[in-house]
Amino acid sequence: MAPVHLIRNLLAAVFIYGGCVSTDATPRAITRDVVIIGGGASGAHAAVRLKDMGQSIVLVEKQAILGGAVDTYTAPLAGTPVDYGVFSFIDYGDASAFLARLNISTAPPLQFPSATRHVDFMTGKELTSYVSPEWTDVVAALEVYLEQCEKYEHMLVPGLWDFPEGADIPEDLLMNFGEFATKYGIEAALPTIFISTGLGMGKFADELTMTVMQTFGGQMARALLGLQGSFVPASRRNQDIYDAIAALLGDDDVLYSTTAVSSERDDDGVTVTVRNREDGSLTTIYAARLLIAIPPLVDLLEPFDLDAQEEAVFSQWEYTREYAVLVRSPFLTALNESVANLPLAAQPSNYLRTPDVPFVDQFALLGGPDELAHPRIIGDEALDARGARLLLRKQFAALVAGSDAGTEKGLDVVAFADHGPMHLHVSADSHRKGFFKDLYALQGRRSTWYTGSAFASNFQTVLWEYNEVLLPQMLGS
Ligand SMILES: Cc1cc2nc3c(=O)[nH]c(=O)nc-3n(C[C@H](O)[C@H](O)[C@H](O)COP(=O)(O)OP(=O)(O)OC[C@H]3O[C@@H](n4cnc5c(N)ncnc54)[C@H](O)[C@@H]3O)c2cc1C
């Protein structure tokens, strides 16, 4: 690799981190077949599978552990794990075999507690005339939804290689989901779709049906209908999966607490300079290929010096932000039931109505001696972690103020996970202009490949399966 890469990367690193890196720091240099950026669901899985395929790799992860959206908290009194990020894994593709080779035995997921009370968290007013759909109606609606999902599944999962463009895109997929739900009479399924995974999109009735299908598609519908399995580790600690991957990879193959600061990419290979966030040390990685497994947003990819073609594609994304939280409050304990957020206009049975963004979805009581409750906070691109914490307190205060159950306002946030940009999606217009064709055309350009939910669907095991198709393509290129 040309030494000029090294010099430029070092200068860029000094420029970006001028205050904390001395100018005479010489980066350590390593050489690998593939450098992977991001050790979440897609990046960590890809690291294992690439090693299986005989590749040398290095995985660069911003956090001190692998696992991305998996958040496992150990409840101090009960001494048990509580997964407040990723909840369960759908049995899809080679997922079971992958866990078996990690020596992870599995068990069915526990039932997530459902809310028995509905309150408008903006006003604190209870929805006294709200009627939840009967489960038989939910099942019937999910069956109709599944039938529709199955028509398009081959275009959407595990990847969108065959997604059509222009007039060939089925009209239903570019229809707003609210309109689609009304067209097929599946309104009774909406509260279930929303509270399981749909809420991450914000106001899901206004999103495109294909975006909803990437977030709650055929697998989820089948899982809820008992037609497809799902599992968690038998330890009931989802982090065990990613800890097992970390152990398998070993310390030489993972750079923790590390992010890229600069890079050079061309058709002959890549040079990526990365910096450890704890000690400021630099490492320069020379690799034949770069696999990006973080959200492909222009600002996050700044160290990769995007060219005009890449920027034109990645600047089209819209997204939400999601924060997963565990709280404890005497008020919630006294309430003794889970309470979900719905606007008053959802009464008596307007299932298309969901809270305005940003919102706290619910306070789901998890039971046990630790008296934990689990809210999630969803916002648009502008909702940062501070704003999310303020919103949590504000909507909790409204809940307390509107209740007869007590005035105790104490709310301890015991765990708070920032999941960053989520649910990357584009407009119907972008789809008509061939967005996915343009996106996938970037695969392999400048020795750079991409995995992760923006390129596939928002499920752990679907991403693992996406890798099973992508990685051989990458190595064969
Ligand atoms: C709260 C929540 C609950 C979910 N529940 C489920 C569920 O129950 N079942 C399911 O199948 N799916 C679930 N999902 C969806 C699923 O987890 C995601 O689709 C999946 O994690 C996306 O994988 P990814 O590799 O694209 O990103 P992530 O898994 O988010 O991984 C990205 C990784 O990159 C790292 N990173 C970010 N920026 C940088 C950088 N600049 N340099 C280096 N590293 C960086 C991050 O720390 C992270 O480890 C859930 C998601 C969330 C947020």
List keywords for this structure.
477 residues; alpha+beta; FAD/NAD(P)-binding domain; seven-stranded mixed β-sheet; 32% helix; globular
Could you walk me through the main structural features you see in this protein, from its secondary elements to its overall organization?
The chain is α+β, with helices and mostly antiparallel strands. It has a domain at 3-68 and 240-317 and 427-476: FAD/NAD(P)-binding domain (3-Layer(bba) Sandwich), CATH 3.50.50.60. Helix content is 32%, strand content 23%. It contains 15 helices and 21 strands. The protein has helices at 3-16, 41-52, 95-101, 135-156, 177-184, 190-196, 209-215, 218-224, 239-249, 308-314, 330-335, 385-401, 428-432, 435-440, 460-476, and strands at residues 28-37, 57-60, 72-74, 81-83, 89-90, 106-107, 117-120, 125-126, 230-233, 254-255, 258-266, 269-276, 282-292, 318-328, 339-341, 359-360, 362-367, 372-374, 376-379, 412-425, 448-450. The strands form four sheets. Strands 7, 8, 14, 15, 16, 17, 18, 19 and 20 form a nine-stranded mixed sheet that branches. Strands 1, 2, 10, 11, 12, 13 and 21 form a seven-stranded mixed sheet that branches. β7 (117-120) and β8 form a beta hairpin. α2 crosses α15 (460-476) and α4 (135-156) runs antiparallel to α8. Residues 1-24 have low confidence and may be disordered. Flavin-adenine dinucleotide (FAD) binds at residues 37-43, 60-63, 68-69, 85-90, 259, 293-294, 300, 322, 324, 419, 422, 452-453, 458-460, 463.
- Any guess at the CATH architecture of the domain at 3-68 and 240-317 and 427-476? 3-Layer(bba) Sandwich
CATH-level-4 superfamily name of the domain at 3-68 and 240-317 and 427-476:
FAD/NAD(P)-binding domain
Shape label: globular
Give the C-alpha Rg: 23 Å
How far the N terminus sits from the C terminus, by CA atoms, comes to 20 Å
Residue stretches low in confidence (pLDDT < 50, at least 5 long) are 1-24
CATH topology of the domain at 3-68 and 240-317 and 427-476: FAD/NAD(P)-binding domain
Structure class = alpha+beta
